[in-house]
Design goal:
The protein is 40% helix and 17% strand. It has 216 residues and is an alpha/beta fold.
């Protein structure tokens, strides 16, 4: 991992130089983003998702063109990895645990990536929890590539993006969040999550700013 200190005036193009940076695309999957996915079928408002998918697609293209590795992270649930605390929490809220069991079930179309999709040689990480670092080898794979900086986008801002960013920061990665390439199903949750992450865990940048820094 590159530990050379950077100055405040080095600028974004230096901070997220492709040699040290990976783009993480988090949970842009059918069940979270498509009208016929689990969330969409329950009538959740997906109106904010489309713009984030489009922005993430532009980021993926820019990262590929610049030579920065792109990592697709997706939730994958199985009977063996179902979290009993999550299911019990759903019960205590008066909900149906079967809904949680259905989301991104391994081997179902709902777990497929939606919007930007992995290229043939790109890293795909399947995670059993909200954070991309819990129950996966993501950290080891990033360090093996000399990555010490992450640009993160995905769904949803207040849940899996938030959890991943916090865990990355606690593992000593420099973290940037592509603010317009993330989305939540409620605008206040999106804005609140970005405010919290920007205060303590990451720097917030727009897709246009990141693409420009990568030469796009």
């Amino acid at each position: 991992m590159n530990t050379a200190p950077l100055r405040a005036d080095d600028g974004l193009s230096t901070w997220i130089a492709p040699a040290r940076t990976a783009l993480l695309v988090v949970d842009m999957q059918v069940d979270f983003a498509a009208p016929d996915g689990v969330i969409g079928r329950f009538g959740v408002d997906l109106s904010a998702v489309g713009a984030a998918l489009d922005a993430a697609g532009r980021l993926v293209e820019a990262a590929r063109a610049a030579g920065a590795p792109v990592v697709f992270v997706g939730l994958e649930t199985t009977p063996q990895t179902d979290a009993p605390t999550l299911l019990e929490r759903m019960r205590r809220r008066g909900g149906d645990p079967e809904i949680e069991r259905a989301i991104c079930r391994a081997g179902t179309p709902g777990a497929d990536f939606y919007g930007p999709v992995p290229g043939p040689s790109e890293l795909v990480v399947r995670k059993p929890r909200y954070s991309a670092f819990v129950g996966t080898d993501l950290d080891a794979r990033l360090r093996a590539r000399g990555v010490d900086t992450l640009v993160v986008c995905g769904l949803t801002t207040e849940c899996c993006v938030d959890s991943t960013v916090r865990d990355a920061f606690h593992r000593d990665y420099h973290v940037f969040v592509a603010s317009d390439a993330c989305a939540a199903y409620e605008p206040d949750l999106h804005e609140g999550a970005l405010k919290s992450l920007g205060l303590s865990f990451a720097l917030l940048e727009t897709t246009s700013e990141i693409r420009a820094a990568w030469g796009g």
